[in-house]
Specification:
The structure holds two protein chains of two kinds. Chain A is an alpha/beta fold. Chain A has eight helices and twelve strands. A five-stranded parallel beta sheet of chain A has the order 2-1-3-4-5, sandwiched between helices. Classes of the chains: A alpha/beta, B alpha+beta.
Chain lengths: 230, 516
């Protein structure tokens, strides 16, 4: 491949960054490494990577701060690599403009899938959106407002359809409660996710065979929802 | 107003006593006339009048009426029954001694009755005190919690002395921990007045009675008593009343007795709290030491395996067959994943231990928790057969999602690894009025009946050895997590084989959003 995708790994633990680098190189990516925040910011400006993997716990600058500075001038997809189990931090990063997050420990396939998703969405942003969507047995026709599962049409309310199509359009990416609420009810809506979650429960009962083991829409506990990716 | 009432009451009493006296004397006179008519003997007349005087002393209050009636009686006898009839003649022979003895007798009788009456009054007062003391003792004995004790004491002091009461626990000015029971609203401002507060503080500091009656500071309106034993001051009781009864030494003595009952209750409560604290501490300490033991024992094994396998792969890689090579690498992954799981359990424990077992609860949808757990467990055990189901009803329950997921994962892992069965594990949730009940049922070998009662104590790891490594600690962590959520957890063998683990979570947590 002549045109390799460039991935910048911002991570201060060399063991982790080495392992990610090896995996990515063997999968045909070009890898840049940075172990501090300041270095990373200048590398982003000079190398223009296609995807950034960002660890939030850096020695010099807070990862969140890098993200905020970056988002002032660039929309390069950023995936947060977090060792912490703290949901609030993930939500904060996502709301600050991160595209996705992945929690340590993670597997290679999971990492590669996230990178692919992030890059796909980055390229989609610049082209016209598809009018149709399909994954597994679920297909959505945005224009006709149709949702079909295994050939059967599913009746959703206005709000339910909006939620499903919003998740479908960001397929594979997690959307936080606040992001969904802002998209549906406007940026000044009350940030109370109770209504959203009741709606999600109804959607689950309409779309999923078993609400306890969903196939299409996954819950990221304490963070938000994600539409299944292939 | 009150003074007027008081006077009216006295006037009323005077008239009723007067009427009683006249009535009894009148009846006695009629009786005497009848007797004289019937028998024509005047000898018993005096006795009739003495009886009347005695009666009058009993039914009226004070000495006056007895003495008054004995005079009146003597005049009547003289007037009606001695010669000359219907006229006074005190110079009759033998009359002065009779007159004198009658006066003495009636005086003695009235004095005695008055004394007896007074004594009866004192006895009834004593009885009332003893009764209320008994009552308060009984109630204080069963009261739990400082606030309940204070409310009880406030009620009793206030009812018994008809006054406003304030009770401080601890140092009045530092702890500011007080409760009041007021007769009138104005008393609030009096109690909260700086002079009164200083008096309470002085009482606390010196542990002697301070107040209006001690003459040391005359502008103090209340009376403050220390709640103290020889070496400790627990607080201060303040009494505020308009009548003067409070200032009698006897009243203060009885107050002292009531106070000592209050002290007993406070000390009992303090002991109880201390004991509770120690119990929680030991429970935590037990868990921590169990954990340490598990960590030192259980973590070493997989780490050794990883190092050994990795070394073999590195050094012998030409001598190994492809299959052996794969097996060693698989072992490494397995052990590493087990370590990750263990670390997650450790994190869960620190999450509970950090905030004094106060966990951060948020409203979470039960079905989302179950679904997210299923995703996680399938990642680790892709081949495991698990069937999960949730009720049609959608509810949200306050919980720490990470911790509850950890519980579900531990229980599922336990079922997968230890049931020795390939049949599907059932994860089920039902709702009752107050609880959500989660159950994990397998069709495996079941539990050792002897161990069921201790299965969550995390103590039987050593006996069973490496085959169940970490499970004991996993289950004891489940117990801590569920207890911290005020739920319950249990295990039992199914009739048709296999085991069921069950835990409950209260649907309504009392402390959502204000658990520090």
């Amino acid at each position: 491949m002549a045109n390799k995708f460039k991935v910048l790994i911002i991570e201060d633990e060399t063991a982790i960054s080495n392992f990610i680098a090896t995996t990515l190189k063997s999968n045909g990516y070009m890898v840049l490494l940075s172990s501090s925040g300041k270095e990373a910011l200048s590398m982003i400006a000079s190398h223009c990577p296609d995807v950034i993997l960002l660890d939030l716990g850096l020695p010099d600058i807070d990862g969140l701060e890098i993200l905020k500075q970056l988002r002032k001038w660039s929309s390069i997809p950023v995936i947060i690599v977090s060792a912490r189990v703290n949901e609030e931090e993930k939500v904060e990063a996502l709301d600050a403009g991160a595209d996705d997050y992945i929690t340590k420990p993670f597997g290679t396939s999971e990492l590669l899938a996230r990178i692919r998703t992030a890059m796909r969405h980055a390229s989609q942003n610049n082209t016209i959106q598809n009018d149709k969507f399909s994954v597994k047995g679920l297909s959505i026709d945005f224009g006709k407002r149709l949702v079909i599962i295994d050939g059967k049409e599913i009746h959703l309310t206005q709000i339910e359809f909006k939620i499903v199509s919003l998740l479908a359009k960001s397929q594979g990416r997690v959307l936080t409660y606040d992001q969904i609420i802002a998209e549906l009810w406007g940026p000044y809506a009350v940030k109370d996710n109770q209504i959203l979650r009741v709606n999600m429960a109804n959607i689950r009962r309409k779309l999923e065979k078993n609400p306890a083991e969903p196939q299409y829409i996954f819950t990221e506990v304490g963070v938000g929802y994600r539409m299944v990716d292939e | 107003m009150k003074k007027n009432n008081f006077n009216q009451f006295h006037i009323l009493l005077f008239f009723s006593d007067f009427l009683k006296t006249i009535l009894i004397l009148f009846i006695a006179t009629i009786l005497a006339f009848t007797l004289v008519r019937l028998s024509a003997i005047a000898d018993n007349i005096f006795s009739i009048y003495i009886l009347a005087v005695a009666l009058i002393s009993v039914v009226t209050s004070g000495y006056i009426w007895g003495i008054f009636s004995s005079f009146l009686g003597i005049f009547s006898v003289n007037y009606f029954f001695t010669f000359p009839y219907n006229a006074f003649n005190f110079l009759l022979a033998g009359y002065p001694p009779a007159f004198f003895s009658m006066l003495v007798i009636s005086t003695i009788i009235s004095t005695l009755t008055v004394k007896i009456k007074k004594q009866a009054l004192i006895f009834s007062e004593r009885e009332k005190q003893a009764e209320s003391l008994h009552d308060i003792t009984k109630r204080l004995l069963t009261a739990t919690g400082m606030d309940n004790i204070r409310t009880l004491a406030l009620d009793y002091f206030s009812n018994f002395y008809h006054c406003s009461v304030i009770i401080y626990f601890g140092n009045p000015s530092i702890d500011q921990n007080y409760g009041m029971k007021l007769l009138t609203e104005q008393h609030t401002s009096i109690f909260e007045n700086q002079t009164e507060k200083n008096a309470a503080q002085l009482c606390y500091d010196t542990s002697v009675v301070v107040g209006a009656d001690t003459f040391s500071q005359t502008n103090i309106k209340g009376t403050y008593l220390p709640i103290s034993t020889d070496d400790t001051v627990f607080g201060v009781i303040g009494l505020l009343s308009e009548n003067e009864g409070l200032k009698q030494p006897k009243t203060l003595d009885f107050l002292g007795i009531m106070t000592s009952q209050l002290i007993l209750a406070i000390e009992r409560q303090n002991l109880f709290e201390k004991q509770q604290k120690i119990l929680v501490e030991t429970e935590k300490e037990k868990m921590r030491s169990n954990l340490l033991r598990a960590v030192s024992h259980d973590l070493r094994t997989p780490l050794t395996c990883i190092v050994f396998s990795a070394t073999t792969v590195l050094e012998q890689n030409t001598a190994l067959s492809k299959q052996q090579f794969q097996k060693l690498l698989n072992d490494i992954i397995q052990d590493a994943q087990w370590l990750i799981h263990m670390v997650e359990n450790l994190l869960a424990v620190t999450r509970i231990n950090n905030e004094h077992a106060v966990i951060k609860k948020q409203q979470e949808a039960v079905e989302e928790i179950v679904a997210a757990t299923m995703v996680k467990i399938k990642k680790r055990f892709p081949d495991a057969q698990i069937k999960a189901s949730v009720p049609q009803e959608f509810i949200m329950i306050p919980m720490d999602a990470t911790l509850i997921m950890q519980v579900l994962i531990n229980l599922l892992e336990n079922a997968i690894v230890h049931s020795h069965s390939t049949e599907a594990i059932l994860l089920d949730v039902v709702y009752t009025e107050q609880y959500a009940i989660f159950s994990i049922k397998d069709n495996g070998v079941g539990l050792d009946e002897n161990e069921i009662n201790h299965i969550f104590d995390g103590v039987f790891i050593e006996k069973t050895g490496d085959s169940t490594r970490g499970i004991g600690i996993g289950l004891s962590i489940c117990k801590s997590i569920i207890f911290a959520h005020k739920g319950s957890i249990s295990a039992e063998n199914n009739k048709e084989g296999g085991a069921t683990f069950r835990f409950t979570l209260p649907k309504k947590g009392e402390d959502i959003n204000h658990g520090e």
